[in-house]
Amino acid sequence: MTVIEDAPAPGAGRRASGAKGFGRTLLRVLGLPVLLIAGWWVFSVWSESFYVPTPPRIAQAFAETWFSRRLFDDALPSVARLLAGYALATVLGVGLGVPIGLSVRLRAAAEPVLEFFRAIPPPVLVPLIMLLAGIDNGMKILVIVSGCVWPILLNTVEGVRALDEMLSDTCRVYGVRGWSRLRHLVLRGASPQIMAGLRQALSIGIILMVISEMFASSSGLGFTIVLFQRGFAIPEMWSGILLLGLLGFGLSMLFRMLERRVLSWHWSHRA
Amino acid sequence: GSGSSEGAGGKDKVTAGVIAIVDTAPIHLGKAKGFFDKQNIELAITPVQGGAAGISGAVGGQFQFAFGNVTSLLTAKEQGLPIKVVANGVSSTGEEGKDFSAVLVKEDSPIKTAKDLAGKKVSVNQLKNIGDTTIRASVRKAGGDPSQVTFVELPFPDAPAALQAGRVDAIWVVEPFVSQAISQGARPVAWNYADAAPNLTVATYFTTTKTDPDLVKRFTAAMNESLRYADAHPDEARDILKSYTKIDPAVIAKIVLPKWTTDINRESIQAIADAALGDGVLKQKADLGTLLP
Amino acid sequence: MLEVTGLKKIYETTGREAVGDLTFQLDAGELACVVGPSGCGKTTLLRCIAGLLAPTAGTIRVAGRPVTGPPDDMAVVFQEYGRSLFPWMTVQQNVELPLKEKKLPKARRAELIAESLVAVGLDDVPRSYPWQLSGGMQQRVAIARALAYEPQVLLMDEPFAAVDAQTRAELEDLVLRIWQRLGTTTLFITHDIDEAIYLGRRVIVLSSSPTVVVEDIKVDLPPERDQLTTRALHRFTELRGHVYAQIQRAKDAR
Amino acid sequence: MLEVTGLKKIYETTGREAVGDLTFQLDAGELACVVGPSGCGKTTLLRCIAGLLAPTAGTIRVAGRPVTGPPDDMAVVFQEYGRSLFPWMTVQQNVELPLKEKKLPKARRAELIAESLVAVGLDDVPRSYPWQLSGGMQQRVAIARALAYEPQVLLMDEPFAAVDAQTRAELEDLVLRIWQRLGTTTLFITHDIDEAIYLGRRVIVLSSSPTVVVEDIKVDLPPERDQLTTRALHRFTELRGHVYAQIQRAKDAR
Amino acid sequence: MTRSAKLGHGLAGLACLLAVMEAVPRLGVVDPRFLPPASEILGALAAEVRTAALWTALGETIGGWALGLAIAFLTAVLIGVVIEVVPGLRAASHSTIEFLRPIPSVALIPLATLLFGASLGSTLLLVVYAAFWQVLIQVMYGVADVDTVADDTARSYGLSRWSRIRYVVWPTALPYIMTGLRLAAAVAFILTITAELVIGSPGLGLEIQLAQSSGAVATMYALVVLAGLIGIVVNLAVRMLERRVLAWHPSVRGEVTS
Ligand SMILES: Nc1ncnc2c1ncn2[C@@H]1O[C@H](COP(=O)(O)OP(=O)(O)OP(=O)(O)O)[C@@H](O)[C@H]1O
Ligand SMILES: Nc1ncnc2c1ncn2[C@@H]1O[C@H](COP(=O)(O)OP(=O)(O)OP(=O)(O)O)[C@@H](O)[C@H]1O
Ligand SMILES: [Mg+2]
Ligand SMILES: [Mg+2]
């Protein structure tokens, strides 16, 4: 016999009530990270490896490295490029994904080409992008787009393909066509999958932000990390990775807030 | 640990992490010629992507020996990594116009000499490495202000295209891209390796302090023999390039080979270290005693 | 207004013949009820008329034009009412969407929505989402949506299956009222034989597969219908018995 | 067997009181029908009994044990029959799944599946997927699944809403037969008053919100029921009129 | 749409791509010395295909890719389902997942070389790390998409937790997981090649890196094209799998009926 459970869906987190609830939330959020840090600590002390510094050493490096002008000179431009690339990828991914998902013919024609480009590693695509878009911000944003667009595109295509037939029939019958069909049926119906894609793309975007800054760069968060790595400043390098993780965490929190709004209907009727 | 193990016939199995570029022809040639077998070393060459990867691999125990440029080694040493140079790697020919590394501009560029690089955008393959240090030396030598040069990172293979497209004012490349770019209409304005120091030692082979000293001795002997042989037989060196790179044979015939000497030029390394300290690439005065043999 | 000629539909995935050979006509402003055993092809017929399913053979004409896609000015209440409501829209938005599409001015839309929600007894929940409603309430939202649309052709697939007897009677009268006011050509699928006779001016009885029209009964009751008096008529009971026997025959023929 | 005491359910999302204060009991092997206006809380009641919804107040006991999750040996036919069938399973697999869970041997399972599919008239489509079936057929799959399970407690939420009159009569008799054979405690929600009286030994009439039991009617008809004779009894007509009036009252009280 | 019509459309799409790749350098939009026309790239590819080295490299790459993908896929599905199904676990793991996920696997290279060196192990670490998240997120979204009525049905018939996972949760999540598999397959492939490029373990990436550092532009692009072609093949395989396991799903069955 199983217990009645109120499994919260992503984005449908239940508001914790009172001090006890707050404590439990804190435990939930911090429990596993604390465990992991402790594990790392033990490992770093035990292995004494040059590449695995202890947490205090990383924390120290973090403070020294990032509580300075670097945050504005390196981190902020990176984040700006990331957001620009992400936005562009969203427009492209959804813009292409909807027609491809809706039309069997278009899907058949486009799929091999898309799969072709999707399989090409962004690092080897960089020279080509540099040829076409130069070596400045444009190139870096394009590199981010070149990776981010795939999860969004794929999920949009799949989401659109899986629309409930009953709903599309209803639209057809009531003459809901064109833009309004797109807005009221296609985008809303596919939004759970599109959101999954956007979430994937967010972390891929951060990865590509780093990769894009490995070429033709002289500043940026990714560049700084690579520079530390090449300069064997290992604690500083880990501090950069830590910052990346924090950045990803922050962005994903923002994303969750957005998602909670967009998909409120979905989670409440699923949960 | 040293990681080497007794191979077939009592030979030491040794892995070397080496970049697959023109500079490292001697080790490939030496292996082909059996110089390492002669020293009871069964050598496996693993291509690596850059000097830093070689150093990580050596410290991590994947390679017993590796190849890296002096700035990378100095940086690693400064961070306290237990590395030790065992043989010379590659040296500048020291002759302007006939070296394997150059700074190039577009044919119609207003830049005529290294002095004009001040205030311009110059590409190097890695920032804060041997490229910017030696180019600054060129500018300084030509009477310009090295602090006015802006460096951007651009891998060697992508640099010629960026130059032609006008994305940068000048590029630094090494062979085979020097020959290639010149044939595409680029014009050399500085020979940074030749300018930095006489007979500059650009890169060396190194190991970690944990490696068995006897093995190091034998590796050094084999390596030196390889270097001598390669330097003496440039045609065979060009030939071996075909086996581990994909450079067009027509280009191979034309490229300028570096100088492969067994002599590790301590003064030139000191000069690089001092310049790097001045530029802020290094933070402390380098102690060459523990790095060099 | 609505002509179905030699309609045949075979579902390709299963090779099942859902509709065998159907021919009938509806004049403009006529109200016909379709009855038949479960699984005989009523929904399939409706989807073909609505232009949602391509017939395997035969033709369908609505207002003289052959159907190749959903005709204009047609409203459908689907049997799967629950799935035909947009879960991301409130009751009100669900009813409003087709009206927006019709480019009605806002004030008129508000009027129609309010009217139709009152008519189906849902004026107290316009801001609820479909999944916050009971089954019968969801079905009534779908009905309200179709009625607010003021269509020329109205297709309804067992629209009152999920509501209680009293609400059902009210909704039946609502459909009759609207039909009389707007002259909507209506095809009404139902399992309730009483309902078919009470509502329809004609009752089309289908056989189970191969589906054909077993009988096309003209309901010769007085045009003004009333829940109490009409149902109490002797002719009503006669017709009911007749239709029941026909369906029984249609089903047993299998 | 089934005790509902002071049951109250408020949906948090909307703050709507779906069930006000319900108290009734069912003895083991009893068959009771629940009727009430659309949206009055019948489905909510059923979901609380099934342990799928936690009541806001009050308790439910099945076989003496308080319900905190779905009780053992219970089968449910949901009002949303379409969504309760697994689209990735064939008809046969849908019926078989709970039997597998019960760890019945393969031969017995095959027997039960075949029997129940024949009983609901679907023995010709065991390999079809639910979305290849008509609405009524889907509903019958859900019924077959519940019957094959041979539960001790059977909850049915308007299980015959989508089938034609004749099939409905057959299924009613099927439920009665099975109930008599297995002594299943059965709670049957319906909108059809005739059906409630024909099937039930008791009819529980609910009011619309705040939902309470308006009347708990004992059906004093002969235990052996027959579609023709039972429905023709004078007492049957009397009871029908009585229940109809009660629902009308319950609805108008709002 | 029939199989052959689909194939025809796909080939037409690829032909368009080829035409563009041929035209862009020929019309001088970019310098043909830096981006050779398609014909030249295909010529170089034909030459490469005849060398044994390429095939060994390809074997290495595909071996590493398949192994990495398999490990990532299996662990992600397992962990994803466990996280979703055990109450409270999602909340407990959420912050960690969101923190670890965006860490670029490229940044793990030092750790990888340290632990495994320029061997398959390093490649696997990077590949598994990157592909894992792709699948995990899809699994989590898919599992959360279970229809309430379907789940209620399963629960009321007393299906055990495991049965519910197997018969209800898993089929619901499957479409999401298939998308995850396609995403992960590509990401794993990209990471395999990137790892070879950066760490220097043998494989297609190393060949690309060699061609690059040798200035062999046409050969470099030929290898890149080869990578793309492999992507097409992989996608075809996943699509075939999808048609088999998702025959009931609207996205697949829709194409059959209408
Ligand atoms: N998930 C929900 N969230 C909020 N309110 C709900 C929810 N489900 C039902 N309700 C409300 O609870 C009330 C009772 O609903 P319920 O489904 O129990 O009615 P019912 O008696 O089964 O009606 P019907 O005969 O139409 O199926 C309705 O007013 C409905 O709006
Ligand atoms: N998508 C489909 N694929 C294959 N067969 C189908 C499909 N839809 C319906 N059928 C079959 O077609 C036949 C007619 O179905 P239809 O839904 O038209 O019946 P119906 O008269 O509406 O029945 P009900 O009264 O039970 O709703 C049935 O035998 C059914 O199995
Ligand atoms: Mg139907
Ligand atoms: Mg209900």
TrEMBL record, chain A:
Any Pfam family the entry gives: BPD_transp_1
Residue runs in coiled coils: none
Keyword Transport (UniProt): yes
Matching Gene3D superfamilies: MetI-like (1.10.3720.10)
Stretches assigned to the ABC transmembrane type-1 domain: 79-259
Region forming the signal peptide: none
Membrane topology annotation: Multi-pass membrane protein
Protein family per UniProt: Belongs to the binding-protein-dependent transport system permease family.
Subcellular location, record wording: Cell membrane
Bilayer-spanning residue ranges: 25-43, 83-104, 116-135, 141-157, 201-225, 237-255
PANTHER family: ABC TRANSPORTER PERMEASE PROTEIN MJ0413-RELATED, ALKANE SULFONATE ABC TRANSPORTER-RELATED, MEMBRANE SUBUNIT
Assigned keywords, A-Z: Cell membrane, Membrane, Transmembrane, Transmembrane helix, Transport
Name of the protein in question: ABC transporter permease
Automatic annotation (TrEMBL), chains C, D:
Entry-linked Gene3D superfamilies: P-loop containing nucleotide triphosphate hydrolases
Sequence ranges assigned to domain ABC transporter in this UniProt record: 2-233
InterPro entries: AAA+_ATPase (IPR003593), ABC_transporter-like_ATP-bd (IPR003439), ABC_transporter-like_CS (IPR017871), ABC_transporter_ATP-bind (IPR050166), P-loop_NTPase (IPR027417)
Short name of any one Pfam family annotated for the protein: ABC_tran
Sample GO molecular function, one term: ATP binding
The keyword ATP-binding belongs to this UniProt entry's keyword annotation: yes
CDD domains, A to Z: ABC_NrtD_SsuB_transporters (cd03293)
Residues of the signal peptide: none
Keyword list, A-Z: ATP-binding, Nucleotide-binding, Transport
Protein name: ABC transporter ATP-binding protein
TrEMBL record, chain E:
Superkingdom, taxonomy of origin: Bacteria
Cellular compartments annotated: Cell membrane
Membrane topology, from the record: Multi-pass membrane protein
Family matches, as InterPro entries: MetI-like (IPR000515), MetI-like_sf (IPR035906)
Record-annotated membrane-spanning stretches: 65-87, 99-118, 167-195, 215-238
Family: Belongs to the binding-protein-dependent transport system permease family.
Protein's UniProt name: ABC transporter permease
